[in-house]
């Protein structure tokens, strides 16, 4: 391309609250961009504060620290222009992007469209901007937008009317399993509507229950996709813009080896787990390894996220634990090379039951005794976590969490739950995908994948004693949770009325359990927690 505008997109992680460290990282990337001949380097939404900073934004000292670091970055531009996200306080607080050049803050764009749905809560903290921001760099007219602005037609139309040829959008757009297709469709539409090319830069990294994938995009003025950055990869992405044709070209962007649905989902879970552990300063993790598929997949994820040397697995058998479970757990632990322990909990469970027997007089054996086994395991694991300083991972999946097929203070114990938003059918898909990866190690024993799922809390128990088959259960849950279909609509789709009523009842009455569950990475469109918030006490059925 002749007479092109060369720039860089910093698809990197900028953690929440790490204001000084974020500024230092931005300065390093500015130096790299300058050395490579970029005219502009863009950083993600709320670069300095991290996203979402939540109630940190209510602290004047936090806002002041962000603006102080912004001034420091501006002073070090040295011939480079930088677009940096920050919370801008002017009596009211705006989600802002500052254009830094020639040693000063040259221009500030305020986010105009404030999302207040799903995981977003922008209207709690920010006031909307009302002015379009367009700048000129190297004779190229550039419109500046922030995340949700590009999902609405008017902000892009306004910068186009003001003469923009290229729109740079900085984002903190969380990932879910439908998001990338939606992004590409929206960006293609905006480019066609305005005739502007679009450089879409997204944050990457895990923040509590939200995972940002990067997956930045270049879109030509005719709406065609010029380049896709890989998901969950930190990279400084170089690009060139030709104003004559309003086309963009990526320069040496890394490519993902596998872009399948399972590969991207697995990467999201690994990134979310790694960032949660590392950003909270834990030396490693431990988990209960039962010989079942959920704990087996969680162990593989933990090893891939942190390395085997930072992972401990604990098998805690009782008389109901099968040889298949014992053998499968040991084989996986040995194959993956993790620290492994076997603790027989039968004497402890017997002691609990012995102590409680007088108070249980006149009551038959029921799920109480089953839950005592699970709660004994939870107590053991929490003790090990306390003693060794390792964070405990809960291993439950979304299907179980939805219907309450889990035990409070038992298998729900843990500070993070990697599979919390992963349906059971997806657990199977991910396990088979992980085993198909090169490396020569069967990460998850095939016997564990192929066995009938069981909690092994009583003799000859299987999950299907209490639940519909998981294919059927997940199909009903997906309709009820993800798309908010009514029971009548689900039944009309061909599901048995009795089964639908039973599943929906279980979802509704177990809200109290989910309120007490560990956080985990959001990977669907309706995750339990900050996104799906139903009342515990409700007469609605």
TrEMBL record:
One of its GO terms (molecular function) is glutaminase activity. Residues 5-243 form the CN hydrolase domain. Catalyzes the ATP-dependent amidation of deamido-NAD to form NAD. Uses L-glutamine as a nitrogen source. Keywords: ATP-binding, Ligase, NAD, Nucleotide-binding. PANTHER family: GLUTAMINE-DEPENDENT NAD(+) SYNTHETASE (PTHR23090:SF9), NH 3 /GLUTAMINE-DEPENDENT NAD + SYNTHETASE (PTHR23090). It catalyses: deamido-NAD(+) + L-glutamine + ATP + H2O = L-glutamate + AMP + diphosphate + NAD(+) + H(+). In the C-terminal section; belongs to the NAD synthetase family. Belongs to the NAD synthetase family. HAMAP family: NadE_glutamine_dep (MF_02090). Signal peptide: none annotated. The keyword Nucleotide-binding applies. The active site is at residues 45, 111, 147. Its EC number is 6.3.5.1. L-glutamine binds at residues 117, 173, 179. Pathway: Cofactor biosynthesis; NAD(+) biosynthesis; NAD(+) from deamido-NAD(+) (L-Gln route): step 1/1. It is an enzyme of class 6 (ligase). CDD domains: GAT_Gln-NAD-synth, NAD_synthase. ATP binds at residues 288-295, 395. One of its GO terms (cellular component) is cytoplasm. It comes from Rhodanobacter glycinis. The lineage of its organism: Bacteria, Pseudomonadati, Pseudomonadota, Gammaproteobacteria, Lysobacterales. It comes from the Bacteria. GO terms for biological process: NAD+ biosynthetic process. This is Glutamine-dependent NAD(+) synthetase. Pfam families: CN_hydrolase, NAD_synthase. The gene is nadE. Deamido-NAD(+) binds at residues 371, 400, 513.
